[in-house]
Amino acid sequence: MNSASPIRIIQAFDLSPLRSQAIYHAIAECFTEDSPDTICLVRPTEPYICIGYHQDPQRELDLEELSRFGLQLIRRQVGGGAVYLDANQVFLQWIFSPNSLPVSIEARYRLFIEPIVSTYQNIGIPAEMRPVNDIQVRGRKIGGCGAARIGEAELLVSSFIFDIDLATMASVLKVETLKMRDKLYQNLTEYVTSIARELGSPSRQEPIVDTYLEQVEARLQREIYFDNLSPLEKEQLASTESLLASDQWTYGGGGRRVAGVKIQQGVAMHHAAFKSSGGLIRWVVFLADDNIIDATLEGDFTIYPLDAPVSLANALLGRRLDAELRSEWETIFRTLVQQSPGVSASDMFAPLEMIATELASSR
Q1: Is the pLDDT assigned to residue 113 strictly greater than 70?
Q2: Which CATH number is 90's domain given?
Q3: Considering only CA atoms, which of 3, 15, 32, 25 is closest in space to residue 146?
Q4: String of DSSP letters for 293-326
Q5: CB under 8 Å to 227, separation ≥6 — which residues?
Q6: pLDDT tens digits, 127-154
Q7: 3-state DSSP assignment of residue 1
Q8: Is 181 helix (H, G, I), strand (E, B) or coil?
Q9: Model's pTM, two decimal places?
Q10: Dist CA 36 CA 10 (whole Å)
Q11: Where is the BPL/LPL catalytic domain (predicted)?
Q12: 343 and 227, same structural domain?
C-alpha cells in the first residue's frame, strides 16, 4: 500500500444527478500510475434512482412509477442494488491506485468503512460494520458500499445518509401487488435508518464531512489536499455523461449477458433467485430439449472482474442442468471469477439448482 503521497479531495456539492455519478467514472477512466488517489465528496441537486451494474431495471423497478415521480434513472459501473439518492446524502467516492489498497475486496471494504463508522460514532451514532459491506446501527442499515475496477483505478463508493425518503423508494421498486408494496415500505421503515432518525433531528452536512476527512487522515495516515478536476478529467467527464445518459447503457446489458432468445414452441424460460451474504443472485435460463441455449446472470452482488457474469452465462451455453455441470461448476467459477465477496461458487449455482429441481419435479 502507498502510504506516503497525499490524497486529493474533490468536494463537488450541488451536482446534477448525471454528473454526480459521472464524476468518479471519469476520474477512473483517466487514472494512470502517476494519478493521485482521490476522494470525491458529492451531493446531487435532485433526487434520482441509481441501479447496479449487474441489474435489469425492468425487473427491479416500476418504470411507470419512476416516470410519474419524474426521477432520472442512471446505471453505475459498480455492483450493488437499486438506490434512491437525493440532496440528503453525501456520496463518498474513492478512486485509488490498486497499490494503495489491500488485495482482497473484503479487506478493502473494511478499510473503506472504518472512517465512515468512526465518523458516525464520533457524532453519537453507534454504527458498526456488518460483513460483507453494510453499515448498521442497532440492526438497522445506515449504509452500504460497492467496489469495482475501471481502467487502472480501484473504486469504492458509499454515502452519509442524513435523511431518506423511504416512501418514494418503496413506490419505485417493483412489486407484484399493492399489498406487497405496503409490506416493502414497512420493512424499509423497520430496517433502514438515517442520521436524522438516529439523532432525532436534521444535522448540518459540512461538520460531519469535516469529521470524516479527519478520520480518513487518521486511519490511512496520509495527508489530504483540496483540488479540482484536471483538464483531461473535465474532457472525459463530458464523454462519460453522454455514455451514462444513453438508453443503451441504462436499459442494455450493463454487466449482464442479455438473452437474445425469444420464447417460442420448444423453448422454455426458467428463472430463480438466491440471497447470499454478498447479495441477491438471479439466473434466467432458456432451455430447448433440456439444453441451455441462452442465459443471464444478474443481481446486486460485487464481483471481479466486472464482466464475470457474462463469462459465467456463456459457460452454460450448450450445457444441461445436470450432475456433470454441477460437478464442474466449482472449476468454472474459480477460472472465471477472481473475487466475489460473500458469494461462493455454491451460492452462484444455487438458483440453477432450484431450476433443475423444479424441472425434475415437473416430469
Answers
A1: yes
A2: 3.30.930.10
A3: 25
A4: EEEEEEES---BSTTHHHHHHHHHTT-BSSHHHH
A5: 8, 9, 10
A6: 999 999 999 999 999 999 999 999 999 9
A7: coil
A8: helix
A9: 0.92
A10: 11
A11: 33-224
A12: no
